[in-house]
Amino acid sequence: MSFYTSLNGLKNAQSELSVIANNLANAETTGFKKSRINFADIVASSASANPKLVKGIGSAVQSIDQNFSLGPTQQTGGALDMAINGEGFFTKVSPVTGKTFYTRNGNFTLDGGGFVTDTQGSRLQVLPVDAAGNVTSTTPIDAQAPLVSGTGFDFMAVTIKADGSVIASYADGSVANVGKVALASFVSPGGLLQIGGQDWQATGISGPATYGQPGAARFGTILSGSLEQSNVDIAEEMVGLITAQRYFQANAKAIDTATQLSQTIINLRS
């Protein structure tokens, strides 16, 4: 029994090392959120067993939780770089698959069609606004700056304000409000599915997205020209790495001790 109990411990230690290694590997990844592994003990006994004699048969991975605490903000000066000062996720839609993604990575650019996109081509979503800049719907649309103004002048640049307004400017000095950045919130963000590239998708555990404009209710404001860095604390991860290593070594030693005891019993019988 001790062999299998310690074997569970070795597997769990390996899982913990994998989680820590992934955190450390993404310590410089923009918008990355670290994970933490949780264990649960395994107890095998019947209702008639003496509770004072139950030894337990090891542990198992109970969950790997995501930590959505804010990471440090770094100023970049990029016109389309954004960081959320508070809660919420940027919303993106792939023009190829139509799938919706959520991210804290605000590194966006402008493509040839005037769409605000990420590095994979997914389009940033904004809330439509009227001429006065007031939000008219909570259904997000693609952020697209018209390449020609209403008076026929060419597009020059696009900027983003703290309230999330995406403003396009033109050669004649006129401007057009494209919309306000659509931020998404979830009842249980820990239930979001990680799909890589600092992107998440909604699941039945996270619940559907609720959209709002920056600065409203529980949503944070937009920091233009900045990016949110990873929330990984390298010192904390290194301490966890040492602890996991000791955990692995201790279980390996328990297996070695059990092997020696078994060999001793075999030698006595022979």
UniProtKB/TrEMBL annotation:
Gene Ontology cellular-component annotations: bacterial-type flagellum basal body; bacterial-type flagellum hook; cytosol
Keywords: Bacterial flagellum, Cell projection, Cilium, Flagellum
Pfam families: Flg_bb_rod, Flg_bbr_C, LlgE_F_G_D1
Residue ranges constituting the Flagellar basal body rod protein N-terminal domain according to the UniProt record: 3-33
PROSITE patterns tied to this protein: FLAGELLA_BB_ROD
Subcellular location: Bacterial flagellum basal body
Residues spanning the signal sequence: none
Domain Flagellar hook protein FlgE/F/G-like D1: 83-167
Ranges that cross the membrane: none
Domain of life: Bacteria
Keyword Transferase carried by entry: no
InterPro entries recorded: Flag_bb_rod_N, Flagellar_basal_body_rod_CS, Flagellar_FlgE/F/G, Flg_bb/hook_C_dom, FlgE/F/G-like, LlgE_F_G-like_D1
GO biological process, one term: bacterial-type flagellum-dependent swarming motility
Domain Flagellar basal-body/hook protein C-terminal: 224-268
Family of this protein: Belongs to the flagella basal body rod proteins family.
Role description: A flexible structure which links the flagellar filament to the drive apparatus in the basal body.
Protein name: Flagellar hook protein FlgE
